[in-house]
Specification:
By secondary structure, the protein is mainly alpha-helical. It has helices spanning about 5-15, 20-25, 30-55, 70-85. It has four helices and no strands.
């Protein structure tokens, strides 16, 4: 291995980047450039992870029991009864 390859691997390990990311994305020709690239990739990865946790799929009412005779339901039944009487519809 060349010194530059070893440097890339060491910096990638320090910033918890995969070996594939190190080979593909750390293209700098010197240590400060490679370090800056790795730092930025780690920041982006951290932001993406945070966003995926914050904006994950959420179904707050999933599995909740539907109340068909709530206060709104009672008004709906009253309106339905009124309408049936108005138009002469029997059940």
């Amino acid at each position: 291995m060349t010194d530059l390859t070893e440097t890339r691997e060491g910096i990638a390990n320090y910033f918890n980047l995969s070996a594939q990311d190190a080979v593909t994305l750390l293209t700098g020709a010197d240590t400060p450039t490679i370090t800056a690239q790795a730092q930025r990739l780690a920041e982006i990865d951290g932001q993406n992870e945070m966003l995926s946790r914050v904006q994950g799929n959420v179904a707050p009412r999933e599995g909740a029991t539907v109340q068909s005779y709530s206060a709104q339901g009672a008004r709906d039944l009253d309106m339905r009864e009124f309408t049936r009487e108005l138009f002469g519809v029997d059940e």
